[in-house]
Structure to design on (424 residues):
């Protein structure tokens, strides 16, 4: 791997670590502010909202300058969101501050993934994605555990008792200390961003006409959805991220009902799922080539079926094994599909634009599924019913996508599309 790849990995690790710790802290903040239960999943909703709203623009922004510079600007926006969250005294102000962090994340993502296609040859993309996804999931594990620890009274009291010479931090609560520490991790990530090498790719001049960018983005969406391999990989990753975001909150609620876990302990079970994803991602990087990526689709069907088994679990260790299995299935099938989507997108329209299209579709799925989950919570639907419906939806959707791919194959062997040159 190129030297710059490891710098990208370090920056991604600390940024993702902070993202996941901050979600747990923000949930605790809403609880402290006595927000209704349905507002908890709305944190994810406002976080990804800018991914959808700014989708026509962030891809062009990412392709307009060096990706390391884009990532630095994005992490700076996340730090600003943390500062606003630090002063949140009302539940809707907290949601607004968390949305600013989402704004930074929306700008960060096209650069984070787009730089891989600029830095590495196609044959290394699955391996690179395996490492990036594995490291990202490792940061999710540590981030959720860190977030759970930061809101634990014993840990927060130690943080509040630390005295800095000649500095009055003004920290009065456990959540203030937690938010400040998360902002420090974003700062570390931003520092690594400054050392990401320029890949030497020619950058497109950022158009100032919004209507042109919207038209160009719509054209890119059409290109990817009409591409025989692009449409299948995009459908899979869109479903995966919508389901994955919802599963985060399902696990929290399920851990409370089935195992009697408070938030700080339930957050660590989120990390168990992420650990499974990391395992699956690493195995996929070793065992699956870019050309064979579409062969992993049936594992998505299996994941939906296994999710429904959560209903029967009452024991912690059985729960851990089941969550690792769910994560492993998810990681093994999403990493090759993600690499295939990046490859086709890079060929069709350029790295930044293709990732922006991917983010738009994936986060539109997140918005829809999170809203549906919040609606279930408002209607007081039992979590076991939600889990059954969720698992069934994932399994049936993956069956339909698999049949879609087989239909494409019966009409035309789409595997020859791997490696084609860019369409102008």
């Amino acid at each position: 791997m190129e030297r710059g790849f490891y710098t990208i990995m370090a920056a991604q690790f600390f940024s993702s670590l902070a993202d996941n710790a901050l979600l747990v802290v923000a949930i605790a903040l809403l609880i402290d502010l006595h927000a209704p239960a349905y507002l908890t999943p709305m944190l994810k909703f406002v976080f990804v909202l800018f991914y959808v709203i700014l989708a026509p623009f962030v891809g062009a922004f990412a392709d307009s300058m060096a990706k390391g510079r884009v990532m630095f600007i994005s992490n700076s926006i996340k730090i600003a969101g943390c500062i606003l969250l630090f002063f949140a005294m009302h539940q809707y102000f907290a949601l607004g501050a968390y949305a600013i962090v989402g704004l930074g994340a929306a700008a960060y993502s096209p650069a984070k993934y787009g730089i891989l296609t600029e830095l590495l040859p196609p044959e290394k993309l699955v391996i690179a994605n395996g490492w990036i996804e594995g490291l990202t999931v490792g940061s999710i594990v540590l981030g959720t555990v860190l977030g759970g620890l930061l809101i634990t009274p014993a840990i927060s009291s130690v943080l509040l008792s630390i005295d800095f010479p000649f500095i009055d931090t003004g920290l009065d609560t456990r959540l203030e200390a937690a938010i400040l520490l998360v902002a420090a991790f974003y700062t570390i990530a931003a520092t690594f961003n400054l050392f990401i090498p320029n890949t030497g790719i020619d950058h497109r001049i950022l158009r100032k006409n919004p209507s042109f960018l919207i038209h160009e983005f719509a054209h890119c969406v059409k290109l990817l959805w009409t591409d025989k391999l692009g449409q299948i990989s995009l459908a899979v990753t869109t479903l995966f991220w919508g389901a994955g975001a919802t599963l985060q909150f399902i696990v929290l609620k399920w851990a409370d009902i089935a195992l009697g876990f408070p938030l700080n302990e339930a957050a660590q079970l989120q990390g168990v799922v992420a650990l499974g994803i990391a395992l699956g991602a690493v195995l996929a990087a070793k065992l699956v080539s870019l050309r064979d990526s579409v062969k992993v689709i049936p594992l998505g069907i299996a994941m939906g079926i296994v999710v429904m088994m959560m209903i029967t679990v009452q024991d912690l260790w059985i729960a851990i094994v089941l969550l690792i299995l769910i994560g492993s299935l998810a990681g093994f099938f999403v990493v090759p599909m993600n690499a295939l989507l990046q490859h086709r997108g890079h060929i069709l329209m350029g790295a930044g634009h293709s990732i922006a299209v991917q983010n738009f579709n994936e986060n539109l799925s997140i918005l829809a599924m999170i809203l549906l989950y919040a609606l279930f919570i408002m209607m007081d639907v039992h979590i076991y019913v939600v889990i059954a419906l969720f698992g069934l939806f994932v399994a049936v959707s993956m069956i339909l996508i698999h049949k879609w791919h087989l239909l494409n194959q019966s009409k035309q062997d789409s595997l020859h599309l791997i490696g084609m040159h860019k369409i102008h």
Observations:
- The mean pLDDT is 81.
- Residues 131 and 340 are 15 Å apart (CA to CA).
